[in-house]
Amino acid sequence: QVQLVESGGGLVQPGGSLRLSCVASGTFFSRNAMGWYRQAPGKERESVASITSGGSTTYADSVKGRFTISRDNAKNTVYLQIDILKPEDTAVYYCTRWYGGLDVGTPHYWGQGTQVTVSA
Fold first, then answer.
1. Residue 106: other Cβ atoms inside 10 A
2. Quick count: other Cβ atoms within 10 Å of Cβ 98?
3. Of 41, 73, 75, 95, which is least packed with CB atoms within 10 Å of its CB?
């Protein structure tokens, strides 16, 4: 079965940086679109970044210029580099995966999430 395991979350002060990692089980990783969603208390679940099998990336307006998604197909891993963290970035961040190579519609697989807390 497909399993997605996130890591790299933690407590950081505003202006700091974090790199989240997600390791995907199974094969054919390079053929699947991957992404990151987040859920903050009192807010809607939102997609923050995604990357297609071809390497095309999409970002939410709120994170453009600060977040960078990338993938290492040899390691079955997708990353989310988060820079210039703001308190409003505080959320549980979920790694996601689609069946196909395009990041359209609701992702089909979800990880357990990793907590990111930004506070002074």
1. 9
2. 20
3. 41
Taking the CB of residue 56, how many other CB atoms lie within 10 A of it?
A: 12
* Cα distance between residue 35 and residue 45, in whole Å: 13
* Residue that has been written with the tokens 């950081």 in this structure: 12
Say how many Å lie between the first and final Cα of the chain, rounded. 40
Give the pair of three-digit tokens for residue 67. Answer: 């977040």
Structure-block tokens of residue 40: 């903050």
pLDDT at 26: 74
Apex CA 44: angle with CA 108 and CA 107, to 5°?
Answer: 10
The per-residue pLDDT for range 21-77, each reduced to its tens digit, is 999 987 788 899 999 999 999 999 999 999 999 999 999 999 999 999 999 999 999
Give Cα separations from 84 to 45, 67, 70, 89, 108 (angstroms): 21, 9, 18, 10, 30
